[in-house]
Amino acid sequence: MASQNARADSLSLLLFTLRSGKLMAINLLKVSEIIPCPALTRLPEAHPHVKGVATLRGQALSVIDLSRAIGEQPLLDPSGGCLIVTDVSRSKQGLHVQAVSRIVHCLSTDIRPPPYGSGTQSFITGVTQVDGALVQVLDIEKVIHGIAPARLQGEAQRLSEADARCLANANILVVDDSHVALQQSLITLRTLGIECRTARSAREAIDCLLELQGTDAQINVLVSDIEMSEMDGYALTRTLRETPDFKDLYVLLHTSLDSTMNSEKARLAGANAVLTKFSSPELTGCLITAARFVAQQAR
């Protein structure tokens, strides 16, 4: 299979530091702007990791004390530093950091998985090297979820008999390197009465697809994150499209980035659809569309 030779995508990372001085990074596509730390209004019942609310062009912006949120030492100057304003999973927030370093460009294959043993408490999704220095890639979705958890208890949605039958025949594989995002997807599937396979990386997904190919449990719908270390969702999709057994597999790319920014790139990679995280009703609608596609292909 062509998985070992998958074409890599370019990636821009914004490097920043906290008090310790170690380099951390965030995907530049998740960053709206960088501003000096403004005056903040403290909300008395806010989460302890929320420093306060800033007003940015007339709009309220929650400011997260990133040091506290990931268990680091607080900044020496609590009113200094700067804000990285992020736009992730349909919401904006400010991350209070010590300093922004620079922007670097790399390939998705340059991002390696977190060190073994990092565990589910880690706030990084990968690591890379920049000029010989280790850089940790921030799991911003996990930071946000720790402060304002998404509702993971869903209510069973009413489905038509035809849609319920279609979904029952869909063998779904969900791929995501974020534990939080994976759980959100699984809860939606379970409210629909669907059990599915999961993978935490593109290569693990390929192994699962190969293992089940030709069996009664053969995967016919793939729901994949885009941002993953070593091989991202675009490269995974292209690899599948170049493999005869998987060229017709239904692929939904599920991303914390604005899907309008990614729709053309997803189309060029060969994905059937792209969706911004996280909306349970919208994911349900996409899964029904996928199941209908699979049912039609089977006729």
TrEMBL record:
The CheW-like domain extends over: 10-149
4-aspartylphosphate modified-residue sites: 225
Residue ranges occupied by any Response regulatory domain in the UniProt entry: 171-292
Q: What is the lineage of its organism?
A: Bacteria, Pseudomonadati, Pseudomonadota, Gammaproteobacteria, Pseudomonadales
List GO BP terms, alphabetically.
chemotaxis; phosphorelay signal transduction system
Entry keyword set: Phosphoprotein
Name this polypeptide is given: Chemotaxis protein CheW
